[in-house]
Amino acid sequence: MSTTEGTGGGTATRPSAPDDTAQPAEHTATPPDDNATAPPTGQNSTPRTDHDTTPPTGQKAASATGQDVASATDHEVASPGAGGDAAPGGGGVRLGPVWGPAGAALLAVLVATWWTSSPAVPGITLPGPLVEYGLPVTRLAMQLCALAAVGLSLLPKLLGFDDPDRTEPVLSGARAWAVLAAFGWAVTALAAMVLSAAELSPGRAPDPGAFVEALGSGQGLVISAACALAYTFFGLLAVRFGENVPAEIRIVVAVFGLLPLPVSGHASNWYWHELSMVSMELHVVAAALWTGGLVAMAVLLARHRDLLARALPRFSRLATVALVVVGLSGLFNGLVELALSPITRLPGSLFTTHYGQLVLAKIVCVAAIALLGANIRWRLMPAVARRRPAAFAAWAALELTVMGLAYGVAVALTRAPVA
């Protein structure tokens, strides 16, 4: 066996070239046919074997009935477009599942922001449209970049390390995409910090330094951006040295960067501060692991049946736990926020306030996601595990689209007035 350097800097084994001195296999001699004649001059003198699918000179490649000369065998590999396994690293990236959730999230956050916007009050200067709509869109982009980094970091743990010849070409692409996602995360976090400072001083030039010094939400954005930059550093090392840079380091850094984000939402003002913060952080981390992992599989593994069969059962167990955590923590956060409002009362505030209606919209989204996830787990996963064709990419894209709607509603929810 010989070794060659992998795309991610690690080493992968491949069979060595055959030994020229090896003796050929022994064949049973076939007596010559007395009726055989030598081929005419100019034609190949090599006799055709039973496996030769090349038609003789002057004959058609297919018969008059339209049948192919070479019949399909058990070893035939379907093309990627037909649902077969694609060679790792050979065009296996599908960006289609990304655009649906991104578009749904953008639409949801814009509509929800418009719907919950405060009316103009004479004598009070409100932020302009650039800040009013730009801040939630920027925070949404930050969340999406963060969950992409988390999900791509999780991929090595889902695939395992026992078959680097198959997994390394896919993982090398995941590491490169994760670096781009982490850098986008850092940029959008800093942009959100500037827009948040502008929101607090409408009509004046924003002062990000004063915003960070005075408010915990600004400090949380700075910490999150710093974690994103730290992830970018470790991600670049992983691009160069492969999985010699442990995936656990990247997962921990990415998850740690998510923890300060709830500070900028309603959780920072709740009376039950400690309990609400823990609940919100569990909610954010579980949602990122769940959504990010599904994005990574839909984009990078949908064309590789063998790799998908390996990763999907492991992810399904993680997604089940994440669903329970996201559902319970989200319901707790919304109901407690409404219960602590001195102006409105439950259960009527669920239906009479914009905040309560957004909570109901999130509950509907989570219920729909649970049904779509159950379809993948109980209906599609058995076929995926047997490496049979399954519409995983289409169902995953639909589930991610609903997740995008939920993310858009969640971003608007952190800024919506409770009363």
TrEMBL record:
Chain spans, region Disordered: 1-89
Top-level taxonomic group: Bacteria
Stretches of the chain forming a coiled coil according to its record: none
Transmembrane stretches, start-end: 98-117, 137-155, 176-198, 218-239, 251-272, 284-303, 315-335, 355-378, 390-413
Polar residues bias spans: 60-70
Location within or outside the cell: Cell membrane
Domain named Copper resistance protein D: residues: 309-413
Pfam families per record: CopD
Keyword Transmembrane helix recorded: yes
Membrane topology: Multi-pass membrane protein
Gly residues composition-biased segments: 1-11
Biased composition (Low complexity): 28-41
UniProt keyword annotations, A-Z: Cell membrane, Membrane, Transmembrane, Transmembrane helix
PANTHER family reported for this sequence: INNER MEMBRANE PROTEIN YEBZ
Name of the molecule in the record: CopD family protein
Organism: Sphaerisporangium dianthi
